Amino acid sequence: MPDSNENNLDLSAIQIRVLIIDDDEPHAQAVAESLERVDYDCTVATSGVQGASLIESDTFDVVVTDLKMDDMDGLAILAKAQEELPDAEVILLTGHGSITSAVTAMQHGAYTYLTKPLDINELRAAVEKASSRLKLARYNTQLKRQLDEKFGFEGVVGNSPQMRKIITQLQQLAPTDSSVLILGENGTGKELVAKAIHQNSRRKSKPFVPLNISALSEGILESELFGHEKGSFTGAEHKRIGQFEYANGGTLFLDEVGEMPMSTQIKLLRVLEDGQINRVGSNEPIKVNVRLVAATNADLEKMVEEKQFRKDLFYRLDVVKINLPPLRERRADIPLLIDHFLKEMTARHGRDIEQMSKSARQALMSYDWPGNIRQLRNYIERMVVVDLDGLLDVDDLPDEIAPPPRLGDEPSAAHDGSDSLVGQPLSQVERYYIEKTLEVTEGNREEAARLLGIGERTLYRKIKEYKLNQ
């Protein structure tokens, strides 16, 4: 777990991005310089149209815009910001003759207005006050992440050592724009992790667009990614916006990227290098600002060696790598996942089920889960749907999952390959089941005590008595 000193949150350290829009370029630059001196991250647009384009493709916390511009006025900028950046504050700059219009803008949601010529101190105070709410909201979000760290990260549930490490990694990389490569078996939650990265980034107000590469043929894939022009191929009766354009300003999640054809890999690499796409059938480049998160269950490094995947593309995707362990290697998380999915499915299907028996939990803990989290979620849903008595028990388990051996039964080879305990002293039987439960829970004594139906102090005493901690 991170050291407590690393979790201290500093409100003043939160970076605020400011967009200045003014068709008087020297004035716009002067405003930017005055704010940069007090540590604001400023971007300048010297026309209303350019400013609107930046609002569409990027993220900002505060927009400072002139009210009167030749191509697009401040009221139109306000409307655009409210549509694209709902959390941002808009400050209007106006001459004395346009104060009535500025007041009207405030009635439509602008934060405030300032009259020209600007007083620098007044400008800085207005931006600081406008950004204070945003800083506090971001601080509270970060604090919530720390408080929820034990149980997960925006739906990524886990308290095992492997998942705590991954959750810490997600907290660090989510606010950046780095490309991410997620590796893991099918069903380990790769798309869920990608969504968590997006929802905790500065792009969260923009689209999250998932695309499964393996489900599309080569010709259709390029059209899905980059779009196409009308008449560019047989059946192209209308112009189509591709997923890169649709995700502009947001995050594009490419699942099963290892299935991408070599010809498409070349085009994807060009997009990552140049930041622009060409629709199929068009020579006109279109600029895009997209964070790419890719995922695969394939060994991309081996594919690179076998020349089935481009080395240069692999390095562009592999800026940050996340390895999701299979569920069988993080059994300590199964109880948390059971409770999480039980709550989700009872709410979804309107069932009044609050508990699962110890025997059913033991069976789920002992199973190897070849389909990982997705399989567990589906099985919990099935149990909730078929249950008749309000308690999920072994009779509700799918046929694929056999209950663990009961006391007095001969343990089967399917579970541990041990010799029969029939006729053995009761202390030996007790020792055996405590030892096996600790193995299943990966040493989590709290969970083992709950599964065994005994108190934690009793379990600690038994561990010492049977010398299981040696």
Structural commentary:
The chain is of the alpha/beta class and 470 residues long. The protein folds into four domains: 7-141, Response regulator (Rossmann fold), CATH 3.40.50.2300; 148-325, 3-Layer(aba) Sandwich (Rossmann fold); 326-404, Helicase, Ruva Protein, domain 3 (Orthogonal Bundle); 406-470, Arc Repressor Mutant, subunit A (Orthogonal Bundle), CATH 1.10.10.60. The chain has 18 helices and 16 strands. It has helices spanning 25-36, 48-57, 74-84, 99-107, 120-147, 161-173, 190-199, 218-226, 243-246, 262-274, 300-305, 311-317, 334-349, 358-366, 372-386, 426-440, 445-452, 456-465; strands at 17-21, 41-45, 62-66, 89-94, 112-115, 152-153, 156-157, 180-183, 208-212, 251-255, 276-278, 285-287, 291-296, 320-323, 355-356, 391-392. Strands 2-1-3-4-5 form a five-stranded parallel sheet, sandwiched between helices. Strands 9-10-13-8-14 form a five-stranded parallel sheet. Helix 4 (99-107) links the parallel strand 4 and strand 5. The longest helix has 28 residues, at 120-147. Mean pLDDT is 85; it is low at 1-9, 147-152 and 404-420.
